Amino acid sequence: MFLNQTTYSTGTSPRSVAIVDVNSDNKPDIIVANWNSNTVGVLLNNGNGTFLTQTTYTTGTNPGSVAVVDVNSDNKPDIIVTNWNSNNVSVLVNNGSGTFLTQTTYATGSNPNSVAVVDVNNDNKPDIIVAN
């Protein structure tokens, strides 16, 4: 049995969600890719079952799939998102306080749809895998 739902505003046409502690307070936060808004939203956990209003970060056109991994070995989760109509992925590096730097983009094939991150070549660094 579940309690009544609580809703939170996101950008237009949210497509993908990830749950991870982005500000090191040991509370799971929400990250959502907002397709028509061309943003990623971060909703920080208040610790009482509620979340702050989303903070948005600009991405490429039509962000779809979101993944979270520490890309720069600073022990802070960073955001990776596919951008369908930009034919790239955005990487947003975590500042550590639950905020993120301006995106860095990397080219992909046409219409990237899904992203995963794993160390495929055993160099102890995450590799970005994109389906398009």
TrEMBL record:
It holds the Pfam family FG-GAP_3. Keywords: Signal. Coiled coil: none annotated. Gene3D superfamilies: 2.30.30.100. InterPro entries: FG-GAP, Integrin_alpha_N. This is VCBS repeat-containing protein. It comes from Rotaria magnacalcarata.
